[in-house]
Design goal:
Length: 162
């Protein structure tokens, strides 16, 4: 390696170090605008545990951030709860979707956890997600939606600093 290449690599490393130092400790990616401007949410429980859906509904109602709607068509976002193993009935003549909501994906949820995801109801794109420790239908620590509330708190703090 020539001296000029070593200097270029050292300069790049120095820039990278200074950039990392400017990041706030524990920084998380900001929430997408589609999430921060949403007003309504439809809850879709794919865990097989109605207790988790009930818990999520109670927490959403108590938080008051979103209006809970009765259909995906009326929602700005879909809050999807997915467990490590879940089964979904598919009507006769239909096949499992490979994209969008209810899609089969290679991404798995670790045993003993529930994935909480905010999904765009029109495109099926995941806008935000988190894992929370659960055991069957029971939340193991804290509240099921703690990660979501924390993401909104961090978003608000960052917005207020501007």
């Amino acid at each position: 390696m020539s001296l000029s290449n070593v200097r270029k690599a050292a300069a790049l490393l120095l820039v990278l170090v200074f950039w990392v130092m400017t990041l706030p400790a524990g920084a998380h990616p900001t929430l997408p605008q589609a999430v921060t401007t949403a007003h309504s949410v439809f809850l879709q429980n794919q865990t097989g545990f109605p207790e988790l859906q009930y818990t999520a509904l109670l927490e959403l109602n108590k938080w008051g951030r979103f209006d809970i709607v009765s259909s995906q068509d009326k929602a700005d976002l879909v809050l999807v709860l997915t467990g490590g193993t879940h089964v979904r009935a598919i009507p006769d003549g239909e096949f499992p979707r490979t994209t969008g909501l209810n899609a089969f994906t290679e991404e798995s949820v670790p045993a003993g956890h529930t994935k909480i995801a905010l999904v765009d109801p029109k495109t099926g794109a995941t806008l935000w997600s988190d894992l929370h420790k659960t055991e069957g239908g029971k939340v193991k620590s804290g509240h099921l939606l703690d990660g979501l509330r924390q993401a909104f708190d961090e978003y608000e703090k960052a917005r207020n600093k501007r």
